[in-house]
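From the methods appendix. Each design record in this collection lists the tokenized structure first, followed by the designed amino acid sequence. Records were kept in a plain field format so they could be parsed without special tools. The example shown here is representative of the layout used throughout.

RECORD:
FOLD TOKENS (127 positions):
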């Protein structure tokens, strides 16, 4: 029902920055909570960051806290992940996810909470 498309991935040196975008389409998005996950080769998909519809509540994994920030622009139906001080261990395919919630302040950090997923964008950090 909701189509999500990630963009902004690429190759960057350790210590560098990238900004990922996730554009949503297919219907209206009131109450639509969103998040970012990533999957490195040979590893399980893991949570990165989440944001409520209002943008007022965010949640970051310990591995990216202090380096990444999550934000959204609901007028553009787009969510962003600003990644600074990138490390080689950040190398992964990054996926955006979304779900409708009953309040604008709701956020989610478990994979099974999200029914909508993008196709992913590759982020590679070289040393």
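DESIGN:
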């Amino acid at each position: 029902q909701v189509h999500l498309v990630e963009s902004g991935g690429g190759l960057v040196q350790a210590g560098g920055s990238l900004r990922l975008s996730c554009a949503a389409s297919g219907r209206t998005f009131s109450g639509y909570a969103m998040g970012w996950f990533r999957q490195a080769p040979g590893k399980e998909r893991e949570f990165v960051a989440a944001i409520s519809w209002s943008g007022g509540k965010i949640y970051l994994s310990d591995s990216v806290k202090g380096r990444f920030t999550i934000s959204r622009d609901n007028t553009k139906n787009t969510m962003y992940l600003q990644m600074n001080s990138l490390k080689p261990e950040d190398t992964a395919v990054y996926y955006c996810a979304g779900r409708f919630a009953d309040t604008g302040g709701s956020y989610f950090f478990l994979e099974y909470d999200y029914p909508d997923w993008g196709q992913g964008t590759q982020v590679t950090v070289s040393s």
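APPENDIX NOTE: The two ends are 40 Å apart (CA to CA).
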